[in-house]
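Annex B. Sample input.
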Amino acid sequence: MNLYEAHILSEDKLDIDQNRLSILTQKAKKALAIKFAEMPFFDVATDMSDIDELNKLAQKFKTGLTDIVHIGCGGSSLGAQALVQLAGYGCVGSDATKPFNIHFLDNLDALSLSNLLAGLNPKTTGVVIISKSGTTLETVALASVYLDWSITHNGADNLSKTAVIITEPHKQKPNPIRQLAEKYNIPVLDHHEGIGGRFSVLSNVGLFVAALFDIDLEQIKLGAKSVIDNPKYAAEGAAYSVYFDQTGHCENVLWAYMDQLKLFTSWYVQLWAESLGKDGKGITPISSIGPVDQHSQQQLFLDGPKNKYVTFITKDQSGQGNMLKPDIFMGDQFDYIAGRTIGDIVTAQQRATAATLADKAIPVRFITLKTLDAATMGALLMHFMCETIAAAALLEVNAFDQPAVEQSKNLTREYIAEL
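Annex B, continued. Sample output.
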């Protein structure tokens, strides 16, 4: 299954040390081979046995709901958001056609939750709550308010029909969110204990939400499997990232030319930053969307510090979209777009932007999609997780922990006590 291709543009202008790059690529391939054998994450991502359960629960849960509130932070939310953009979530002109509205609460703000609840009908609103440990402060705070609101309007018994929780089993200490599920008889899906949040998108964390939108879970998993079976592009991507980092290109830009990939780039930023930023090392991720960021970030990329490595995710959109009607304007300055479509312009712009960057000797990688469907999305998600894992191995850091964030968590508890 060949769902995408990847290549570096204008290598001749970059003066690449091919021997050094080859060594890094071989190391990346070996690192992935080891991880494929020892990490349960890869087995879960390709295991088809839970698909029926997820689909059945999703169909039962969403029946009769006009709104679904999704409570989770970081990896508990970003991957699901990336997946459901396949069905048009967050894309202009698409949300209005959906059978229900979904509201991702992935951040704390003093007003957001209260404003949201004020506009929802409690009788037709459900909730999905996700926290691996069951102790994530933001998730606990949001869930406590939402559940109190729902119980106040509907009674506690209604939660068994209008709530789903994804969290780990109890360990040495009870899991507070799981205790909540048990108290109110809320359906629970077990968050896999060996998979961290930012790597959880191809587990029930992301796939349950995809099932709510009737996205083909089997195709997602088959796309992911195609990368595991042939991780060539992922290993090369990790090698390029580390190689260019060593030559001063310490900022990775992921630039997608499709609205349906906007939230995918946000998911990538967390994955890359939290996995690689360790021990004084790391490569800064930057999220970009085309063509809009041609009018904002491109100036910096072209004329600012030459420390960027840019990956474009593109698809040929020629002939797609509305036909342009330039004759509505006075004069002939737009005659060159007559007979063209919106997709023609996007296709030309993504080529032109990449070529302009490459001409400035800025490293540019093209990831070209044949189409954007469930299988391709599964492949892209697995590609960038593999690329991240391999890059961490090359940088000699642990991709799966985040020790530096613990201090801020502890200080938050102290400061709350002082209020």
